[in-house]
Amino acid sequence: MRPGGPGTESRLGHTKPDARADLDGRARLVALDLDGTLLTYAGDLRPTVRDAVVAVREAGHHVVLATGRSLHGTRPVAEELGIDDGWLVCSNGSVTVRLDPRAPEGHLVDEVITFDPAPVLRLMAAEFPDAYFAVEEVGTGFRMNKLFPEGELTGDHEVVDLEDLTARHVTRLVVRSPGHTSQEFHDLVARLGLADVTYAIGWTAWMDVAPEGVTKASALERLRRQLGVAPERTVALGDGSNDVDMLRWAARGVAMGHAEIPVQEAADEVTGTVEDDGAVAVLQSLLD
Question: Which residues make up the CATH 3.30.1240.10 domain(s) of the chain?
Fold first, then answer.
């Protein structure tokens, strides 16, 4: 299902343009991945990274957190960064929200893009019958066929029958099979020829399935146009396979130093690793 079709829902309505859009065209759109980019793999946000993000925002640029995390997993990081206004791209582009401290929940949902998970879920379940499957409940948590390992999914968790996961359209399907490798996932996807969805495979045997054509890049391009930022004023920083399209989209795409080779090849440049606070040098360069 393509963005803008029956699976697309906009909830924001008319809002005042962000003030940063009025800075004589000088404002950049700076898209930042979270895990492995701003956050260490232990989930820590180091003070030097936080301070660099704050400085870029104070300089008048649009800082957009663009992540595979769900909304409820992204909001705490935004709060830790002191971000209470602006935009979040969550669930690899399926969910876009505008933070607004005046809103009852502190945010307004701008767009939700969904798809029917049934075809791909049934195919994957036939191949990996012991796998973990979960579908996202926007803003709250996940429904799943069994509890995932501790700490892997945030929010509320509801265990349901596998068929119940296909009952309605969703923003994201998560497939987790600890007994298989990422390469086995890639091989399976190639063999099954999955159609009408977009997928990203993580470091381990973990796959996020999203609506067709929906990526961080597709959501960011929509925001770029809405904010009036010129294409050449876009910057993106990331480390995972779900960041490849975003890095290619940006006029300046920067891969983290620990990213796998295909991710680095999609970027214009490579910075230090997350353990070396590689994001800091990139963010500080935007202040010159």
Answer: 118-211
Tokens of 67: 């992540």
Nearest of 226, 276, 271 to residue 252 by alpha carbon = 271
pLDDT tens per residue across span 46-103:
999 999 999 999 999 999 999 999 999 999 999 999 999 999 999 999 999 999 999 9
The model carries a pTM of: 0.87
Q: What's the CA dihedral at 118, 124, 127, 132 to 10 degrees?
A: -110
CATH topology of domain 118-211: 3.30.1240
CB 8 within 8 A of CB 214: no
Element (H, E) at 159: strand 156-159
Rounded to the nearest angstrom, the gap between the alpha carbon of residue 278 and the centroid of all alpha carbons in its chain is 19
CA distances from 182 to 48, 149, 188, 241 (A): 32, 17, 10, 11
The 8 Å CB, 24+ separation contacts for 44-49 are 45/77, 45/80, 45/81, 46/277, 48/277, 48/280, 49/277, 49/279, 49/280, 49/283
